[in-house]
């Protein structure tokens, strides 16, 4: 499935939900927030949130800042 | 029942009963941001020797903020009908006194005379709200004045926010309302009957005026009614409170000193010129950017000396009788006795001789329209 | 002025009570160990963090993991990187999702060179976020009118700059800060421009409720020691403010030309 992740093209191998995508990309267990097509997906809804061809996903995390 | 002072007004944290010393006064004068405590110190007997220092400071601050200018305005007494029993006032309802109000045609005439004298700012005065001179009457007078004058203020009775808004719409830019004294018990004694007995209604009226979009609100205490330092600190706190909440409106402060008038009321406290002057200096030091007013209650030499020494705005050529500017014999007594009876040209000449420019117009009513929507 | 004080001189913002008056930024440190050490040494109870898109390939250090574990610290995401109100609002919503706290430092500086905050976009973002229930702490120019407008739309505190970000100019805006402090009914926190602990102390002496530092610690010779020094300075400044600072000298020098000869009376 072709996706756009953080502005770059990404070919998902098996992932069909947000949770499985995070695992596939190696972000499982890390504090990230997921924005799917400009909509924030709360952590509790990730399992149920299915992905479709062409979806845009942005992943954010907190870093050091002033 | 005497009301409780609201926390924002209560001066007691700064009046701990300890008489300030010269050290406290020096400390106050050296303070970066003087407040109620410093004001109290500068008003104490210990500050009398610092008079000259305070005067110098007051002049420097006044000059820095207002330049070498004095704004001028004229009071216009519309009516002396009153239902209140303020023991200190010649217009109180138990005083034998011819009562009258100016009819619209007379108002026009008086306004025309003031305009002739050069004024651009007028303060319209009435007593308590009565059937002779109530809100609608005042509103009509404001509209008339606004057609001729750039600044129209009123000094009347406390009103509702809606009423203040209607006045503002009609062109009123300022509301003056003295609390007279902030001491609720003394207030209760001095205001024997009438709506003015309601201390809190009066106390909150300036805030309502500001909420309604008035550009300026004038505060003051009638000096000599009650403990001077108590009243002074309350006045400062009242001003600071309003400035903080209603930050788009301005404050002015006046320094009316109780003078003999009808009824032979003897002031409980004597305020001499030296104290009055020191009060003005101290307020200027504490509030460097607030216009401070002095009326014609004071004698010419004192007024001349105070111009620019803290004081930035003065009345001149005033009549405190109803119908006083129209050459005809005044039909009523005055609310207070005018001590400085000089005419406007003479007064302006005096200011100029002291290096001060008389200013009749500080802003232009051309902005009034645009402002009605944006102010508030 | 007394603002929300109690016996311990705590201060309150966003409904939370804090005893430390030093806020720390967590950027620009060489490693997370130093950053955490500095935060600990500073005693800060509010620390700012930024929000970034996750790098897909490069795996940067997890700077914040250790902070989460410290406990007792309120994380305040900032909106740095946002160039307008819409972007800042979006960043704030994401930050809340990640940080789990309603605190947000609204920070919008469109010019990448001087980094001065955009007052108009900042105001707009603050208005929207306050209405959404965020605890909004806007980084802002030291402008008393803007301060008032931000307070009126429901900001929880004001964060005027002492001088330009990273300039180390100290309290160049002191005169404006005094006006802001005089009229504010919410805490005033000086943010940006402080270089040394003495400047932080001066801000608290002046009556600021707290200061926020980052570069001054991260870029110092020994960040952990410097964080501790700032902590001491802030306490000293606050105590000095509470104690009441000695008046300036020379205020009562004898005047030469008498101005008061016209006055009669004894001075009651
Ligand atoms: S002070 Fe005002 S309210 Fe009181 S009696 Fe005089 S005119 Fe009436």
Structure commentary:
A 5-stranded mixed β-sheet of chain A has the order 2-1-5-3-4, with no helix packed on it. In chain A, a hairpin with a 2-residue loop joins β3 and β4. Chain A is mostly beta strands. Chain B has one domain: Alpha-Beta Barrel (TIM Barrel), CATH 3.20.20.70. Chain B is built from 13 helices and 9 strands. Chain B has an 8-stranded parallel barrel, surrounded by 4 helices. With 268 residues, chain C is of the alpha/beta class. Chain C has one domain: TIM Barrel (Alpha-Beta Barrel), CATH 3.20.20.70. In chain C, 37% of the residues lie in helices and 15% in strands. In chain C, α4 links the parallel β6 and β7. The longest helix of chain C is centred in the last third of the chain and has 21 residues. Chain C starts with 10 loop residues before the first strand and ends in a 25-residue tail after the last helix. Classes of the chains: A mainly beta (66), B alpha/beta (376), C alpha/beta (268). The site of iron/sulfur cluster has 9 residues of chain B, from loops.
């Amino acid at each position: 499935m072709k996706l756009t992740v953080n502005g770059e093209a990404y070919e998902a191998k098996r992932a069909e939900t947000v949770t499985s995508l995070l695992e596939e990309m190696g972000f499982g267990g890390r504090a990230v927030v997921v924005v799917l097509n400009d909509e924030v997906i709360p952590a509790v809804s990730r399992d149920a949130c299915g992905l479709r061809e062409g979806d845009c996903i942005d992943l954010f995390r907190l870093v050091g800042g002033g | 029942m005497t009301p409780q002072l609201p926390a924002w007004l209560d001066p007691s944290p700064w009046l701990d009963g300890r008489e300030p010393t010269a050290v406290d006064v020096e400390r106050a004068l050296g303070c970066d941001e003087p407040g109620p405590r410093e004001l109290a110190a500068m008003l104490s007997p210990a500050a009398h020797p610092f008079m000259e220092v305070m005067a110098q400071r007051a002049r420097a601050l006044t000059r820095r903020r207002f330049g070498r200018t004095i704004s001028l305005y004229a009071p216009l007494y519309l009516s002396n009908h009153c239902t209140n029993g303020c023991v200190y006032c010649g217009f109180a309802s138990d005083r034998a006194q011819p009562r009258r109000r100016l009819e619209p045609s007379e108002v026009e005439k008086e306004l025309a005379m003031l305009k002739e004298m050069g004024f651009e700012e007028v303060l319209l005065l009435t007593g308590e709200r009565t059937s002779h001179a109530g809100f609608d009457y005042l509103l009509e007078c404001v509209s008339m004045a606004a057609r001729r004058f750039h600044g129209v203020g009123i000094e009347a009775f406390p009103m509702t926010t809606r009423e203040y808004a209607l006045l503002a719409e009609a062109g009123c830019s300022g509301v003056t309302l003295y609390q007279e004294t902030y001491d609720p018990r003394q207030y209760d004694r001095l205001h024997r009957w009438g709506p003015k007995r309601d201390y809190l209604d009066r106390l909150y009226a300036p805030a309502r005026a500001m909420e309604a979009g008035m550009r300026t609100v004038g505060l003051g205490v009638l000096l000599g009614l009650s403990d001077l330092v108590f009243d002074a600190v309350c006045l400062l706190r009242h001003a600071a409170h309003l400035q903080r909440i209603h930050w788009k409106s301005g404050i002015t402060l006046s320094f009316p000193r109780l003078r003999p008038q009808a009824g032979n009321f003897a002031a409980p406290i004597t305020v001499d010129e030296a104290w009055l002057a020191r009060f003005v200096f101290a307020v200027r030091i504490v509030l460097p950017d607030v216009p401070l007013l002095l009326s014609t209650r004071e004698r010419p030499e004192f007024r001349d000396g105070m111009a620019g020494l803290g004081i930035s705005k003065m009345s001149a050529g005033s009549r405190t009788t109803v119908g006083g500017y129209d050459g005809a014999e005044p039909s009523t007594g005055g609310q207070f006795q005018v001590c400085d009876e000089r005419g406007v040209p003479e007064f302006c000449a005096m200011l100029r001789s002291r290096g001060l420019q008389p200013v009749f117009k500080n802003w232009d009513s051309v902005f009034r329209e645009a402002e009605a929507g944006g102010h508030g | 002025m007394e603002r929300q004080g109690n016996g311990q001189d705590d201060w309150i913002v966003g409904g939370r009570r804090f005893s430390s008056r030093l806020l720390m930024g967590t950027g620009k440190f060489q490693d997370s160990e130093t950053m955490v050490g500095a935060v600990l040494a500073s005693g800060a109870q509010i620390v700012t963090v930024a929000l970034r898109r996750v790098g897909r390939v490069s795996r940067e250090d997890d700077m914040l993991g250790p902070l989460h574990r410290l406990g007792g610290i309120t994380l305040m995401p900032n909106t740095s990187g946002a160039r307008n109100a819409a972007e800042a609002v979006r960043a704030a919503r994401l930050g809340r999702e990640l940080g789990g706290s309603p605190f947000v430092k609204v920070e919008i500086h469109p010019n990448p060179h001087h980094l001065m905050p955009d007052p108009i976009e900042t105001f707009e973002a603050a208005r929207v976020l306050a209405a959404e229930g965020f605890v909004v702490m806007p980084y802002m120019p030291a402008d008393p009118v803007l301060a008032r407008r931000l307070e009126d739309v429901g900001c929880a505190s004001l964060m005027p700059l002492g001088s330009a970000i990273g300039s180390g100019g100290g309290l160049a805006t002191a005169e404006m800060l005094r006006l802001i402090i005089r009229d504010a009914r919410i805490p005033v926190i000086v943010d940006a421009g402080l270089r040394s602990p003495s400047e932080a102390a001066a801000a608290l002496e002046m009556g600021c409720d707290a200061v926020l530092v980052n570069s001054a610690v991260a870029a110092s010779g020994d960040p952990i020691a410097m964080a501790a020094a700032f902590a001491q300075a802030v306490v000293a400044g606050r105590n000095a403010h509470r104690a009441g600072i000695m008046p300036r000298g020379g205020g009562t020098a004898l005047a030469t030309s008498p101005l008061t000869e016209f006055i009669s009376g004894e001075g009651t």
